[in-house]
């Protein structure tokens, strides 16, 4: 499976930091589900298994998987990690999103 989803160096560092403190997790699973104030929301979960239809992204030892159903919503996106005055979080720069809520956790396409 070919994709244009990318993982920033900041995101890879943070994933490695999180995973190193978790005995039962080896990767970050990112998905898209219906809901949120704009129609869709991102999900972030720690996981141990890559499913056959998952897209696996790797950078600097960090592993991220995206399920097949979520991939069309994330195509062309960059997964980043930002540390700002209002807080630190994973941020998805998604060119498919036509609108987003103020908190940045939900979007519409």
Number of domains: 1
CATH C-level: Mainly Beta
Question: How far do the termini sit from each other?
Answer: 23 Å
User: What is the H/E order?
Assistant: EHEEEEHEEEE
CATH fold field value: Hypothetical Protein Aq_1857, Chain: A
Q: Determine the strand fraction and express it as a percent band.
A: 35-45%
> What is the annotated CATH architecture?
Sandwich
Which of globular, elongated, flat, extended, rod-shaped describes the shape? globular
Care to count the β-strands? 9
* Oligomerization: single chain
The unreliable regions are none
Rg, please?
13 Å
User: How is the biggest beta sheet arranged?
Assistant: 6 strands, mixed
Give the overall pLDDT as a whole number: 87
Helix content: 10-25%
| Structural class estimated from helices and strands | mainly beta
Strand arrangement in the largest pleated sheet = 4-5-2-3-9-8
How many alpha or pi helices?
A: 2
> What's the CATH superfamily, by name?
HesB-like domain
Task: Offer a few descriptive terms.
mainly beta; six-stranded mixed sheet; globular; 15% helix; 2 iron, 2 sulfur cluster binding; Hypothetical Protein Aq_1857, Chain: A; 9 strands; three-stranded mixed sheet; 109 residues; single chain
Q: TL;DR?
A:
This is Iron-sulfur cluster assembly protein. Keywords: Iron, Metal-binding. The chain is mostly beta strands and 109 residues long.
């Amino acid at each position: 499976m070919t994709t244009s989803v990318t993982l920033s160096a900041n995101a890879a560092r943070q994933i490695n930091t999180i995973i190193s403190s978790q005995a039962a997790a080896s990767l970050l699973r990112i998905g898209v589900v219906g809901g949120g104030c704009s129609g869709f929301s991102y999900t972030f979960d720690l996981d141990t298994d890559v499913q056959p239809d998952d897209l696996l992204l790797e950078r600097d030892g960090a592993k991220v998987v995206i399920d097949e159903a979520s991939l069309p919503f994330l195509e062309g996106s960059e997964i980043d990690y930002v540390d700002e005055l209002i807080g630190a979080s994973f941020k998805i720069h998604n060119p498919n999103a036509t609108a987003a809520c103020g908190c940045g956790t939900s979007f519409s396409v």
